[in-house]
Recover the amino acids of this structure.
């Protein structure tokens, strides 16, 4: 169950939520503890339910757990479905409490629910259509920090936008990288990953473009009236981003891959960039 919960996605969702919640205080909004806590629970429950639902509806020809009997696997599928429904129900109930008691906008929560349904549940199930990585990146790097921000400020702000657009690009690059080590199995089971959709020839330049675009947008922040002192911590991960591009290029040129190093680098770029920005706003 722990592996199927995908702890890294829960960690990244937590980081981006904290980022979104940290910005309003810098803009002069008073910190609201109860909406913050309820929103954090909603985000974690929603993300966990999406992770479980994606496994619940995994095609039966793919191994959910290695070396387990079909009966036990079917029992696990049913249990994951029940837990997912309970988590979603709890998230919806907490969302109602937020809206009723704090007049919180409902739209970001609707987008969160839609992304869960589109990503995980048939017949659309974007995780098997080559757009699961994009949906996951948008949810974690765009929708979730927006929820954290709106629960504190009750509106959006262009500072939030200038941060979460490049973070979404870095998130998409990270989830695209996760396709590389599993490419052989994805081919075997005919999984509709983004890497298989675009092929290696297109995916590699797309990956590089996402990294370059992210730091280019960060660099443009002063043109929108924001001090570079707010943004510069994002560039602390630039050496890792360059190293990530070098690794992908080397693999594309036929060099032996080090998958653990590559995936760790991609996680560092996305995760640490979010963490450094979050720390900057909380300390201010």
């Amino acid at each position: 169950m722990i592996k199927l919960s995908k702890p890294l996605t829960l960690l990244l969702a937590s980081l981006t939520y904290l980022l979104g919640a940290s910005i309003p205080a810098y803009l002069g909004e008073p910190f609201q503890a109860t909406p913050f806590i309820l929103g954090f629970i909603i985000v974690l429950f929603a993300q966990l339910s999406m992770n479980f639902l994606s496994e619940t509806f995994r095609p039966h020809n793919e191994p959910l757990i290695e070396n387990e009997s079909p009966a036990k696997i079917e029992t696990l599928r049913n249990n994951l479905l029940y837990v997912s429904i309970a988590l979603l129900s709890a998230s919806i109930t907490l969302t109602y409490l937020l809206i009723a008691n704090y007049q919180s906008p409902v739209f970001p929560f609707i987008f969160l629910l839609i992304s869960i349904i589109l990503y995980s549940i048939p017949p659309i199930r974007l995780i098997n259509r080559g757009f699961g990585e994009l949906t996951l990146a948008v949810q974690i790097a765009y929708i979730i920090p927006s929820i954290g921000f709106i629960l504190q400020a009750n509106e959006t702000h262009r500072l939030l936008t200038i941060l979460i657009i490049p973070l979404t690009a870095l998130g998409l690059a990270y989830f695209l990288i996760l396709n590389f080590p599993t490419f052989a199995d994805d081919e075997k089971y005919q999984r509709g990953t983004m890497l298989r959709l675009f092929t290696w020839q297109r995916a590699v330049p797309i990956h590089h473009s996402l990294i370059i675009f992210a730091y280019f947008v960060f660099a443009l922040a002063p043109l929108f009236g924001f001090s570079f002192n707010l943004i510069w911590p994002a560039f602390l991960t630039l050496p890792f981003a360059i190293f990530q591009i070098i690794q992908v290029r080397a693999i594309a040129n036929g060099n032996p891959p080090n998958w653990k190093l590559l995936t760790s680098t991609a996680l560092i770029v996305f995760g640490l960039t979010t963490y450094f920005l979050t720390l900057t706003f909380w300390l201010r």
